[in-house]
Specification:
The chain is an alpha/beta fold and 332 residues long. It contains twelve helices and eight strands. The chain has a four-stranded parallel beta sheet with strand order 2-1-3-4, with helices on both faces. It has a four-stranded parallel beta sheet with strand order 6-5-7-8, sandwiched between helices.
Length: 332
Amino acid sequence: MTIRPANHVAVPEARVGVLLVNLGTPDAPTPSSVRRYLAEFLSDRRVVEIPALLWQPILRGIILTTRPKKSAHAYAQVWTDEGSPLAAITKRQTSALQDALGDDIRVAHAMRYGQPAIGAALDALMAEGCRRILVAPLYPQYCAATTATVVDAVNAHLATLRWQPTLRFLPPYHDDVAYIGALAASVENGLAALDFIPDTIVASFHGMPERTLKLGDPYHCQCRKTARLLSEAIGRPVEVAFQSRFGRAKWLEPATDTTLARLGREGGSVAIFAPGFAADCLETLEELAIRGKEQFEAAGGRHFAYLPCLNDGAPGMAMLETLVRSELAGWL
């Protein structure tokens, strides 16, 4: 413990902090709450790479007028007593990681869009004496629209601070041994619990416009590598697909909905999971588990199963602790 003069201003003991960051969620499954969330999310120049003068009239005039009601209905189908599944799971991940790392480290969480905001979470960690902070974007595969925008938001907040903390960022972990091992354990546990053996296993990643690949974003390649390494780990083929297409631009292919329709027409059975998501959310619980099943069965498919994300289960939390401890080397 540092000994200070009796008249020294009160200063918290220096600590290390960890800030888990996920994408975000509305505060409630209502059109007004979804509208606020989408306005922030879709105004990010990393997310929609269209000049603001062209994009904002479209966003404010058409999208924010029509989409919130539809999205609110989708959120309502997966909302829980704890609120948004993403928010609830991220809180549990934070608590579990705090328990694993011990009292010498302070663990908090933030959302890139919505609450708790990144700036407020950083301020809270600093108020507790965290002068060294590891920011951990919970995106295994690097994408400018996800990982990079977290870095943007953190740095934008740092620009407002006189006393800045020392920062590190958790790098993408798409091919990390701990991540692949956790995925393999989770998928194998999920498959073992089914009452059928799926003919096809599908890894559905969030989609991105194809132009991002041509511009140099490594996301597509990292998704493919994750699927290849996982296939080798479980000893079964894994098909890759990309979900959540939006707008008229050409997106990464094959698309998840068309893949499920094709597999349904073949009359087989399928198990699908989303390895790019650290926690279950609207895109997994509604888009895949509900609508994906409907698409597959409507096309003639026999058996369908959605396998949960790593969430706060033992394999996922062990992986997260391993990654975080590795990045904290020299700070503890």
